[in-house]
Amino acid sequence: MAATSATTFSIGSTASAGPKVGFSQSKAFSIKLNPKKYLRSFSGLKAASSVSCESQSSFVGSESTLVLKQSYNTKARKCSQRSFSHVQPQASYKVAILGASGGIGQPLALLVKMSPLVSALNLYDIANVKGVAADLSHCNTPSQVSDFTGESELANCLKGVNVVVIPAGVPRKPGMTRDDLFNINANIVKNLVGAVADNCPDAFIHIISNPVNSTVPIAAEVLKQKGVYDPKKLFGVTTLDVVRANTFVAQKKNLKLIDVDVPVVGGHAGITILPLLSKTKPSVTLTDEEVQELTVRIQNAGTEVVEAKAGAGSATLSMAYAAARFVESSLRALDGDTDVYECSYIQSELTELPFFASRIKLGKDGVEAVISSELQGLTEYEQKALEALKPELKASIEKGVAFVQKQPVAA
Ligand SMILES: NC(=O)C1=CN([C@@H]2O[C@H](COP(=O)(O)OP(=O)(O)OC[C@H]3O[C@@H](n4cnc5c(N)ncnc54)[C@H](O)[C@@H]3O)[C@@H](O)[C@H]2O)C=CC1
Ligand SMILES: O=C([O-])CC(=O)C(=O)O
């Protein structure tokens, strides 16, 4: 199941910040964001030639497909006129998706298949993955798609993988909280991360399965027990909170969607999701009522989708988009891009909580820096919300840690 192509698309995603900074979680440092560079990089899926030539156009933004095609043709021509060093094929990373036949897994697999940085795309699930892989393998983009079904094939799926994405597990139904998923998903994440520890301990691990506030501490505990925990390489995927915050603020202020960036900190459930609207780039003026309305909408956005789907699951397409953006950012960091920033839920010393989502700088070895400056100079509203979220987040972290400590993993 292999495929090659003449045309691929890349997912541009990261915020750029000024100075290069070293890995330091406890020490505060200030970072100046260069708005122009910053905004340019938040442009979603971008047209590119098979040889990674970036376009400013985004077909998930406001431009039409026609504009995209025209832009692509122009850019491709321009790129082909540039030096050869610009046009080296870059596909060289292996990505595995665990839970690949699910509502998130399938569109995520498609988006990752479109990345020019991916050479192998390994799809794992307990069911239905053969069909998904056969279907996807007909797309003429560089990566080779392989399917792996059931536990006996999990080890082979993970060998040599650089980035493992985990959307395996059950989604919410109306009336449920994310924590209601704990009893089923905790075990799924525990077992899958155990296999990651055994087969690709150096990989970046992206946890999507809910409740993220607990499943990331579960993953950390498993990796510790296996003796391979590297906190810089374990990420709770909270990109969807940022994507939503950007969208809702842009809509409210009539801004171009791709132009807005709002950092979202804390965790990924209810009030633990804290958008720092005062840190929005470009700076926007919001009334107290608008701040309250936007904050509550961002915190309840998952529930908004769960209710609209009326029993058919939770966010899948927007989640796949957000997860693909985080994958692409990770691959770019692995590939040596020194200008990659995302928000993510990680082991952290930014607050007294052992895990906390904030903006981070990604590098070849994972988290290179935590952007602590964004937690400084908060408004009174944000400061209160930050204090209010801590007890709930702390309890979710402790629940995850206790779960693994009560049922240790096999060495
Ligand atoms: N972090 C975030 O922002 C978000 C997280 N989620 C979470 O993502 C998870 C997945 O959601 P959906 O894709 O909509 O669910 P889904 O039910 O459509 O897909 C889940 C997939 O996982 C597979 N699976 C179950 N047990 C497995 C195992 N042991 N090994 C491998 N695969 C296994 C299932 O066969 C299924 O294909 C849920 O827990 C959901 O709450 C959803 C949206 C946003
Ligand atoms: O709400 C859910 O259950 C899924 C989720 O995490 C989100 O959409 O943010």
TrEMBL record:
<dbReference type="InterPro" id="IPR001236">
    <property type="entry name" value="Lactate/malate_DH_N"/>
</dbReference>
<dbReference type="InterPro" id="IPR036291">
    <property type="entry name" value="NAD(P)-bd_dom_sf"/>
</dbReference>
<comment type="subunit">
    <text>Homodimer.</text>
</comment>
<keyword id="KW-0520">NAD</keyword>
<dbReference type="InterPro" id="IPR010097">
    <property type="entry name" value="Malate_DH_type1"/>
</dbReference>
<dbReference type="InterPro" id="IPR001252">
    <property type="entry name" value="Malate_DH_AS"/>
</dbReference>
<dbReference type="GO" id="GO:0006108">
    <property type="term" value="P:malate metabolic process"/>
</dbReference>
<dbReference type="Pfam" id="PF02866">
    <property type="entry name" value="Ldh_1_C"/>
</dbReference>
<protein>
    <recommendedName>
        <fullName>malate dehydrogenase</fullName>
        <ecNumber>1.1.1.37</ecNumber>
    </recommendedName>
</protein>
<dbReference type="GO" id="GO:0005739">
    <property type="term" value="C:mitochondrion"/>
</dbReference>
<comment type="similarity">
    <text>Belongs to the LDH/MDH superfamily. MDH type 1 family.</text>
</comment>
<keyword id="KW-0560">Oxidoreductase</keyword>
<dbReference type="GO" id="GO:0030060">
    <property type="term" value="F:L-malate dehydrogenase (NAD+) activity"/>
</dbReference>
<dbReference type="GO" id="GO:0006099">
    <property type="term" value="P:tricarboxylic acid cycle"/>
</dbReference>
<dbReference type="Pfam" id="PF00056">
    <property type="entry name" value="Ldh_1_N"/>
</dbReference>
<feature type="domain" description="Lactate/malate dehydrogenase C-terminal">
    <location>
        <begin position="238"/>
        <end position="404"/>
    </location>
</feature>
<keyword id="KW-0816">Tricarboxylic acid cycle</keyword>
<feature type="domain" description="Lactate/malate dehydrogenase N-terminal">
    <location>
        <begin position="94"/>
        <end position="236"/>
    </location>
</feature>
<dbReference type="InterPro" id="IPR022383">
    <property type="entry name" value="Lactate/malate_DH_C"/>
</dbReference>
<dbReference type="InterPro" id="IPR015955">
    <property type="entry name" value="Lactate_DH/Glyco_Ohase_4_C"/>
</dbReference>
